[in-house]
Amino acid sequence: MKKIIYSMMLAAMLAGTATSCSDFLDQSSDSEADPTFVFSDPTTARAALMNGYEQWRSCGVAFGTGSFYHYVVSSSDIETQGESYSAQPWRWVPSYFYGYTNGNLSKKGPGTYGLYENGMMSSTWTGLFNVIGITNSLIEQFEKSSSFTAMMSQTSPSTMSEIYGEAVALRASCYYELMRQYGDVPLQTKAGVEPERLSPRDSIADFVINDLKKVIPLMYRSGESNDINKTYMTRTYAEGLVGRICLWEAGYQTRRLDLGGEAFYKGLDGQQVNFDKVSTNELCFYGRRTDWKKYYEIAEQYLGDAISNHGNIILQTTDPRDASRFGNPYQYVFQQMNDLQMCNESVYEIPETQTQSSPRPYAFGRPSNGG
Q: CA 331, CA 337: separation in Å to the nearest integer?
């Protein structure tokens, strides 16, 4: 019973609530909880992390039918979506590359449409930084504990090192989404400490890649532990995330020139990044870094590890159901999700409950009775 109470109080602490509990516990306040106590027990440590996972799950504006669907799926430079401008302006304006900001194409220029006018973009920003704040608190508490040095010296994963690795992976996931949707954003790594300025996306990418490299050997691959299913960020997920961030960092991007010109773009080591530019104007340039190959090599290593040691993740090439009725491995993947099963192909799944009314089938597949 005490573990349940401690877990509930810890979740409140990491959400920023400080409530005195001296009347019924030996601790005076959850905001003064001894890190050694909190992170000496997997139950309380896991409870703290689950608060972060829940904020990540409920931050649907960052993925699912949120900004990912609006800007990545529906509003690329070669595709469009079938709704009117008045119904979906936050999709149409980026599709026009901010050249026109109304439905009859009479208003030109980004000055008539800012991110602050777009509820989807502002909610995504706020939601992701909320999760980062929680993971910063969690990571700091781990690193303050007396057992942290010994944990990082382990030669194999443990329950506690897995939880710490998941916290690092969750923070890295948030920064990956922020960088690819906003570019250069504040780098906040300490709980309660507000960053003073924007950080170059290159230094942020280096930071999260290095962070993930440290914890990956201390995490379980998918299927290696009965206690760690695909709703947790496993080693397999973290290896894939390193690969995705590296491929993004090595790719062609539009970069701003209003933050100090090209000199603004520095890596984590403080060295200026050089670029091969395709085009440029007074506001921005389009190109990729000249040392892109080193990021491809890192991606090759970590994606290769994820593929060669894939655990219980398999590519669904056959349909195990009655071939005369089904014979559709692609639909079988969706059917597993509909039946609330862990999908064989999934590396990571955000847990959701079934609903009577939801936009998810509309956005990501059709409702089906299995046929």
A: 10
80: alpha, beta or left? (left if phi > 0; alpha if psi -120 to 50): beta
User: Residue 115, Cβ neighbours under 10 Å: how many?
Assistant: 13
- Stretches where the chain sits below pLDDT 50 are 1-32, 366-367, 370-371
Per the CB < 8 A criterion, the answer to whether 135 and 147 are in contact is no
Q: Can you tell me the distance from the alpha carbon of 14 to that of 53, in angstroms, rounded to the nearest whole number?
A: 12
Q: Under 8 Å CB-to-CB from 137, ≥6 apart: which residues?
A: 13, 14, 191
Q: What is the pTM of this model?
A: 0.82
SS (H, E, C) 122-135: HHHHHHHHHHHHHH
Residue 7 has what pLDDT?
43
Report the C-alpha gap between 233 and 228 in whole angstroms: 9
Helices (H), 97-200: 119-144, 148-152, 159-182
pLDDT (0 to 100) of residue 143: 92
Residues 325, 310: Cα–Cα separation, whole Å: 30
**Residue ranges of E strands in the chain:** 253-256, 275-280, 284-289
Tokens of 54: 């829940």
Tokens (6 digits) for 79:
């595709």
Type of residue at 176: Y
Nearest to 94 by CA among 106, 79, 104: 79
Strand order in the sheet with 284-289: 253-256, 284-289, 275-280
pLDDT at position 371 is 45
pLDDT of residue 105: 59
210 alpha carbon, distance to own chain's centre: 16
Which pLDDT score is estimated for 48? 87
Q: What is the pLDDT of residue 10?
A: 43
CB burial readout 192-212, b (16+ within 10 A) else e: eeeeeebbbbbbbbbbbbebb
Among 262, 242, 127, residue whose Cα is nearest residue 200: 262
Burial class (CB in 10 A: 0-12, 13-18, 19+), 249: buried
Judge residue 350's burial from the number of C-beta atoms within 10 Å of its C-beta, 0-12 exposed, 13-18 middle, 19 or more buried.
Answer: middle
- State the alpha helices, DSSP H only, in 183-200: none
pLDDT given at position 27? 39
